[in-house]
Design brief:
Order of helices and strands: HHEEHHHEEEHHHHEHEEHEE
Distance between the termini: 151 Å
Number of helices: 11
Strand content: 15-25%
Radius of gyration: 64 Å
CATH superfamily of the largest domain: Histidine kinase-like ATPase, C-terminal domain
Bound molecules: adenosine-5'-triphosphate, magnesium ion
Structural class: alpha+beta
CATH class of the largest domain: Alpha Beta
Strand order of the largest sheet: 2-1-5-4-3
Length: about 450
Amino acid sequence: MKKYQNMTKAELIKSLERLEKRPAPAHLAAAHQRVLHELQVHQIELETQNRELREAEQLIEASRDRYADLYDFAPVGCVTLDHAGVIQEINLTGATLLGLERATLIGRPLSHYVVRSDVRAFREHLRRCLGGGGRPTTCELRLAVKTGGFIDAQLQSVPIPGPPRSIRLCRTAISDITGLKRAEDQIKALNEALERRVRERTAELEGANQQLQREIADRHQAEVALQRSSEQLQKLSHRLLTVQENERRILARELHDEIGQTLTFFKLAVDMCLRLPLEQVREKLSEASGKVGKLVDQVRNLSLELRPTLLDDLGLLPALRWLIGRFTANTRIEVDFRHSGLEGCRFATGTETAVYRIVQEGLTNVARHARIQRASVKVWRDSRQLHLQIGDGGCGFEATALTAGTSSGLCGLRERARLAGGQLNIESAPGKGTVITARLSAQASGGRPG
Ligand SMILES: Nc1ncnc2c1ncn2[C@@H]1O[C@H](COP(=O)(O)OP(=O)(O)OP(=O)(O)O)[C@@H](O)[C@H]1O
Ligand SMILES: [Mg+2]
């Protein structure tokens, strides 16, 4: 019988088949033969079953070892908890996470290793897991580790189904998400820095854009102003030509009508004297002398109208005095003339001419348009500027409607003031009188005190 014990399963099955086919020896009794044969068959069957059982046992052991390896070395910590959170089982990865021996951990509540401020969240997690309908429950919390610090962990738990009223257990996977958390924090910080940078850059760009818009608007305004002043300049040059033509016409008429005629008369008188007896010559010459005297006055007046030599020879104040006196004499309009700081001063030629022409045009306008018999002129200076004001309480006009196209006298004055480095302002309204003010540079003319 012993010979069957070391046989393989396949060898045993072959022996069994051989025995069944082999005829019983003739010298044994048929009954004994049969019993022995059956016993042999049973033994072989038993040996076969035994071998199968051993093989099955080996397979189970190998599979259990594999499962234990899988469990212990799973990439996450695996722990079985009861309803109070006490550790029933824990794999090696879980024990390594907490930095303790597996034997130390079993039988202890997991909450001992949860950071104090997160214990409430852990209990709530356990309650939800065991009270839920078998679905996985997740929470994130910090676990204190043996080294003294803590790790960020994610717990994912499912209840373990069991018979009713048995102690309820749950299986929890613990993942170390410290690196993930740190990366998340870094990404968050980077995002915040990026957003801050974007905000700053956007603000900078907005500022630059606004500055650009302002510059574009300024440039546009400057272009419009340039266009306007070039139009004004065109109108003024046109006006200048017209005025020049008028002046020439007046001069031509004066020369022809007054000076020419008087000179003709004078020539005739001289010619006649040559033919007259001596006693009549005296009478003719005295008449001619009277005419020449008037001619001298006319020539002087004409020259003063064009540009008083006083202005060049004696300066602004004497020229203004003469202009105002002559204006009153010609128009019977009283002018209240006040001045300060001008006595003995000379200013740049352009400034003196501008002040003179502004007063001249202002007073001419009073005589022509204001319908009043009084006017005032004030001229004074401070350390940097020469100030001028011409006022009347006359009928006034709509000063805001004044443009270079419709007026040339006053607009020409504005241009004069501007060319002399100053500015001129006109205030007037119907029934409210008129005030012209101007400010010009009080810079002294070369060498003389200004
Ligand atoms: N002092 C004033 N009182 C009332 N109206 C005035 C006065 N000064 C000017 N005006 C009004 O303003 C207009 C423009 O004056 P401005 O001196 O520019 O032109 P003007 O006197 O009409 O002609 P010119 O070009 O020969 O001077 C005048 O036509 C007049 O209607
Ligand atoms: Mg005028």
